[in-house]
Amino acid sequence: MTEIAAAEFKIEWRSPSAWVTSLLFAFLVLLTQALAFPAHLAALPEISFAAFFVSAFFAGILSENARLARDRRSGTPYFLALSAAAPERVFAGKSLAAFAILCLIQCFLFPFLVLFFNLPFAPAWPSALGLCLTANAALACLMTLFGTVTFAWKGVGASLGLPILILPMALPVLAAASIGSSLAWAGEPMVHYLKLLLATDIAVAVVGALSFGKLLGRA
Amino acid sequence: MTDGPILRIDGLSVRFGRTLALDNVNLVLSAGSVTLLAGENGAGKSTLLWAMSGLLIPTSGRVSAANGKLPSVGFLAHQPFLYEDLTVTENLELAARLSGMPDPADQAREAVERVGLGPHAAKRVSALSRGQIQRAAFARAVLPGPRLLLMDEPFSNVDPEGIQTLSAILRALRSPDRAIVIASHDRKIMPDISPILVELRGGKLLS
Fold first, then answer.
1. Residue A30: C-alpha distances to residues A12, A26, A42, B163 (Å)
2. Under an 8 A CB cutoff, do A74 and B84 touch?
3. DSSP letters along chain B, please?
4. Complex ipTM above 0.90?
5. Based on the structure, what is the number of domains in chain A?
């Protein structure tokens, strides 16, 4: 699992045009949202956290689409499908790389979140971090799963397939992470949102692991 | 030299939209055999190799293995199946690791040397010429020692010296428990190993 994750992450790191584009895109989406809301609304933690998660998610999709384009050129998913590695291991490795990339995007965005939305350092940050990591796990698994579904698609479907398929599944995750973070910020219990995200993580990981072999084309 | 069947293909048909790429193909690949799939461009050679690999689900018919489980497959296709932003050695090391081979780093280094890419081992695949990529893809396909080796135009874009190197490796790979299938429009490819000739025309098997 780690060897696949390391290889995928190394490839991403060695494609500066892809990750610089993703980071710049994330920054612009966050900035646009910060400027779009009136000051009294932008000060609401619901708005600031939603802006943060949405920006990171869109940048993650951009990065995943770039990776898919490379995969289509080289055919590397077929190499993984024919390898002796168990499909669950391949799924976990690819998801781990997507998770790391999402975290990297969020690390980059974090100072701008604090700056643009005027968020002070508060005791709620660790809870928000927990929600963020749990949401990232679900999003990374969804990206891997739907990325593999759309890998063999051609034409317009190749570019639009992933965002269109993933959005209905990702929106509840983003909403739970945003609402949970804002509750944590207000000092209210957010455990049920954390549980909801954990349940989503498990469900998506199980579905992904079980279906990945078929999706890769492994007979 | 031949043993029991490694792969059995029964009534295989593949349709892409309105095009019938393969039409009721029946074939048995025995262990120890070397098969040459000959035919002109568009005859269905590549499609048959993809179906044999298990990566292409046929429209009808089936591809089955003697013991019910498809054998390990090494596939050299038109796409290299190599990560463009990894070096040649890194790609082969990953292939060796995923196959559970001992000392993957050493195995990768040896494989790189064997196909004559030693001086380019540390180069990223994206920086190689097409012939060099073909050599690296060849090394990737044969590295884990698969029981079924599928090679689609294995020498395309390779210089004469490279063809000699890769031919020698292919000859050495013949083994009583392995089946090798080479798809080529050139019937004279590797005449010294006297492969079983199977000809495709318009998706139909002629011989």
1. 22, 6, 11, 55
2. yes
3. ---SEEEEEEEEEEEETTEEEEEEEEEEEETT-EEEEE--TTSSHHHHHHHHHT-S--SEEEEEETTSSPPPEEEE-SS----TTSBHHHHHHHHHHHTT-SSHHHHHHHHHHHTT-GGGTTSBGGGS-HHHHHHHHHHHHHTT--SEEEEESTTTT--HHHHHHHHHHHHHH--TT-EEEEEES-TTSSGGG-PEEEEEETTEE--
4. no
5. 1
- Best residue of B53, B85, B125, B149 to probe chain A, by most A CBs closer than 10 Å: B85
Closest B-chain CA to A84: B99
Chain B's closest residue to A16, CA to CA, is B85
- Sign of the Cα pseudo-torsion (A90, A63, A114, A135, in order): negative
| Residue B62 β-bridge partners | B10
Residue B2 has pLDDT above 60, yes or no: no
Beta-carbon-side half-sphere exposure of residue A139 (alpha carbons within 13 Å): 32
Dist CA A52 CA A35 (whole Å): 13
Sheet holding B204-205, edge to edge: B73-76, B148-152, B179-184, B34-38, B196-201, B204-205
Whether residue B81 and residue A75 make contact (CB cut-off 8 A), yes or no, is yes
Q: What pLDDT, on a 0 to 100 scale, did the predictor assign at position A161?
A: 85
**Identity at B102, one-letter amino acid code:** P
Residues of A whose CB is below 8 A from B100: 84
Low-confidence ranges of chain A (pLDDT < 70): 218-219
Distance CA B111, CA B92 (A): 8
Q: Which chain A residue shows the shortest CA-CA distance from B53?
A: A82
pTM of this prediction? 0.85
**How far, in Å, CA of A95 to CA of A89, rounded?**
10
| Chain A contacts to B (CB-CB under 8 A) | 3-4, 7, 10-11, 14-15, 70, 73-76, 78-85, 217-219
CA distance B144 to chain A (A): 9
pLDDT tens for A126-179 read 888 889 999 999 999 999 999 988 887 877 777 888 889 999 999 999 999 999
- Enclosing domain of residue A91: 2-216
